């Protein structure tokens, strides 16, 4: 398995659900291996964009191209949802193995174990997910997303429900995996400081399009608070009353 | 939690008196401990039936209960022993058991298959669900006259009635189980590259299983009820038939024996379902052994 990231390109994406359109002609190019954070007000269409980029939903207009745009790109795309979405009837290890896809191969179990080890849950492999804490479930979901060495990882606020400490730990795990495997990462988040801590680039979605596109030129590993100026600039833009409110 | 409590207790106990002495001094706590032990015991459920049988035996022996109303448990046991030796009881029990199992197998598998079909295919659902929901509201025992007219009082009649009775609970609950599988899990499976068959086997079926078991439990109740009625009305063998014959000869002990056997068979079926549930639903917190 190559660890190379998949580039993603969206051209003129439009999507609505009956009311006013949520996305209106959004253009976005994410180069291979980039860590992109998507921020925006609640209801601005971040999840809608992520679902379109991940192929979970179809646009009304426009197109999404992942990698070469072939079937292989589908198998190399992984999504981490807002909830862990673990199968309650499969063991922790079985849940990680789901990430191997339709053809796990002969070394599938060993790879699932390795992925579980990376998130520090090797000794819980044979348990039911029900007995895990919220943070541990998120780690299993992360192991499941990473076990197949994806080229593109889409994260829709997967850490939203975690306490501050667990969150920081998970951010560390995500960043470490990204640095090691070199996948393209797209993180939707409410938390601007999380975006500044992790991303190479931050885009702000407003009015159905990219309203702000900022590079984060901070050396890694980043210290907490090192991007305070950038963070407050984005927050100001998010809270700006003169900007159009999200429909 | 419990460990730390006793730790505190031990430390709070006066140095001269041991922990057991101070505990014996508090009868309320001893009673609570006994109740706790009882609650954890697997056999606690048999306490009440055993007490009822004992009280009943005492009342019969003391002459409070007349034999014509309710024979003593010992008399019922004696009747059971005698009928077992004559081979009558095993024969009737075997016949009833086979009828129950055959009816459950036929009706249950049709209900399960149709539940799956209608849960998975919109076309199948459109075609059949309305009809089935209408038929569900007809009490199946109302069909007894028609079934006897069609099949006489042979085995087919009993099979049809039991199968009809168990069909609906299994069908309705299988369908409900499939419809209520978490769509978020299905979306996850799809986006992680599961084929349609893998989605069914790994997400839809296990997700629907708890509900299928609820249907099976309902079906078992309906199965015995139907069988008792059918055997009482139209049969020449089986426990129900044995009880009806005993009525003609005023053998209350055999009648009570038949009732006790139904209770025992019902309990057995329940036990089998429970162990199946514990095996198939081990992941479910409600079925942890
Ligand atoms: N499946 C759907 N059906 C109907 N409306 C939808 C659907 N998905 C999204 N919407 C609507 O689209 C708009 C954008 O939703 P989306 O979930 O993309 O927002 P978001 O930016 O992710 O918000 P949040 O930060 O609260 O998660 C909302 O108004 C929402 O009601
Ligand atoms: Mg969202």
From TrEMBL, chain A:
<keyword id="KW-0813">Transport</keyword>
<dbReference type="GO" id="GO:0005524">
    <property type="term" value="F:ATP binding"/>
</dbReference>
<keyword id="KW-1003">Cell membrane</keyword>
<protein>
    <submittedName>
        <fullName>ATP-binding cassette domain-containing protein</fullName>
    </submittedName>
</protein>
<dbReference type="Pfam" id="PF00005">
    <property type="entry name" value="ABC_tran"/>
</dbReference>
<dbReference type="InterPro" id="IPR017871">
    <property type="entry name" value="ABC_transporter-like_CS"/>
</dbReference>
<feature type="domain" description="ABC transporter">
    <location>
        <begin position="8"/>
        <end position="232"/>
    </location>
</feature>
<keyword id="KW-0547">Nucleotide-binding</keyword>
<dbReference type="InterPro" id="IPR050166">
    <property type="entry name" value="ABC_transporter_ATP-bind"/>
</dbReference>
<dbReference type="GO" id="GO:0016887">
    <property type="term" value="F:ATP hydrolysis activity"/>
</dbReference>
<comment type="similarity">
    <text>Belongs to the ABC transporter superfamily.</text>
</comment>
<dbReference type="InterPro" id="IPR003593">
    <property type="entry name" value="AAA+_ATPase"/>
</dbReference>
<dbReference type="InterPro" id="IPR027417">
    <property type="entry name" value="P-loop_NTPase"/>
</dbReference>
<keyword id="KW-0472">Membrane</keyword>
<dbReference type="InterPro" id="IPR003439">
    <property type="entry name" value="ABC_transporter-like_ATP-bd"/>
</dbReference>
<keyword id="KW-0067">ATP-binding</keyword>
<keyword id="KW-1278">Translocase</keyword>
